[in-house]
Design brief:
It is built from twelve helices and twelve strands. By secondary structure, it is α/β, with parallel strands linked by helices. It binds nicotinamide-adenine-dinucleotide (NAD), 3-isopropylmalic acid (IPM) and manganese (II) ion. Residues 89, 245, 279, 281 line the site of 3-isopropylmalic acid.
């Protein structure tokens, strides 16, 4: 008899609603795993802001080495109102993305069943943002001078490398080829005159190797308006770290709520584990009330199952939350009355169907 397939997944529920949405997604992943003949060995990590308050670190000194031995990472959210974001995020989330060369941040979005877009006349939306995830505007190069003095200043350099831009452009072009060949490159080469023209050149060079793919260079400001006015005219977007970050919350809003949007931080070569998380943050305004929408994390868990080589289970998980939503079960961010627990039970009931 074939032995059961097993995957080791590190779970970092983290802060705020991360503690609520992550267990919900784990239960659903377990349910589809069981139905599809494999199991997930979860290694739960108590890393995050509570740990920082107690021990002065977001994760142990050897945290990254520990994660390196697993197959994937599922993360909830990081960030607490009483600790500076640069301490919490740069102590946990960002080092994982960088150390494990998760240079693609894949952020698909759709208007899910039963959801009405806040935009009049928009009833279909199905696009993917391919966000550069380890360089660009999120750079450690820079500094602060003369703190607290009138002449105080801050400098932060963006870093765009040929390797970094080319590899994310290649990933986006490959994806666009499988989705009808339309690729939008988000740029700002009219105002940012060194890095963005370079981005444009490298993207154009890479896409020239894909005759089936048409790349359209769109200025980020105009693209923001176009994603609101004509979201159907966009299919795959390749964007720098910051532009991709902003656009992903924008399109999630167009799809009804940032609570449904998933994110896969991929090391496409699989030399290191990839990390799966919702697009949203720790939502301190609603944390602890049991009302958070777990769909973004469930969808991220489905992307994780795809990445682990379990596409049937991934589709079953997506179908389960889509069917629950189609049946009218929705959390408060989407105008419904279900709490996280009730919604999760409705999804679980459909995971093995
Ligand atoms: P946020 O995404 O946490 O919340 C923005 C708004 O969306 C809030 O009103 C929140 O209640 C709502 N919301 C978010 N997720 C929801 C869900 N699943 N269900 C229902 N409503 C939801 O963004 P923010 O308020 O700008 O950031 C809060 C903290 O989270 C900050 O510390 C920030 O740095 C951090 N953050 C972390 C991540 C991450 O861990 N990947 C991502 C974004 C923000
Ligand atoms: C995201 C988040 C992070 C980012 C923050 C918390 C650093 O907004 O994953 O979208 O900007 O990458
Ligand atoms: Mn973001």
């Amino acid at each position: 008899m074939e032995s059961t397939r097993r995957y080791t997944v590190d779970v970092i529920a983290g802060d705020g609603i991360g503690q609520e949405v992550t267990p919900a997604a784990m239960r659903c992943a377990d349910a589809v795993a069981q139905a599809h003949g494999f199991r997930i060995d979860w290694r739960e990590r108590d890393w995050g802001s509570d740990r920082y308050r107690a021990h002065g670190r977001m994760m142990p000194v050897d945290g990254l080495e520990t994660l390196a031995t697993g197959d994937a990472i599922l993360l909830g959210a990081v960030g607490a109102p009483d600790i500076a974001d640069e301490v919490t995020l740069w102590g946990l989330l960002i080092p994982i993305r960088r150390e494990f060369l998760q240079y693609v941040n894949l952020r698909p979005i759709r208007i899910l069943p039963g959801v009405v877009s806040p935009l009049r006349g928009v009833d279909e939306l199905d696009l993917v943002i391919v966000r550069e995830n380890v360089e660009g505007e999120y750079s450690e190069v820079g500094g602060r001078l003369y703190r607290g003095r009138p002449e105080e200043m801050a400098v932060q350099e963006s870093v765009f490398t040929r390797t970094g831009v080319a590899r994310v452009a290649r990933y986006a072009a490959e994806l666009a080829r499988t989705r009808g060949g339309r690729l939008v490159s988000a740029t700002k080469s009219n105002g940012i005159i060194h890095t963005m023209p370079f981005w444009d050149e490298v993207v154009a060079e890479v896409v020239a190797g894909y005759p089936q793919v048409q790349v359209e260079k769109v200025l980020i400001d105009a693209l923001a308006a176009r994603l609101v006015l004509k979201p159907h005219s966009v299919d795959v977007v390749v964007a720098s770290n910051l532009f991709g970050d902003i656009l992903s919350d924008l399109v999630a809003g167009v799809a009804g709520s940032i609570g449904v949007a998933p994110s896969a931080n991929l090391n496409p070569e699989k030399a290191h584990p990839s990390m799966f998380e919702p697009v949203h943050g720790s939502a301190p305004d609603i944390a602890g009330r049991g009302v958070a929408n777990p769909v973004g994390t469930m969808w991220a868990a489905a992307m994780m199952l795809d990445h682990l080589g379990e596409p049937d289970a991934a589709r079953a998980l997506e179908a389960a939350f889509e069917q629950a939503m189609a049946a009218g079960v929705r959390t408060a961010d989407l105008g419904g009355s279900a709490g996280t627990e009730e919604f999760t039970r409705e999804v679980l009931a459909r995971c093995t169907a």
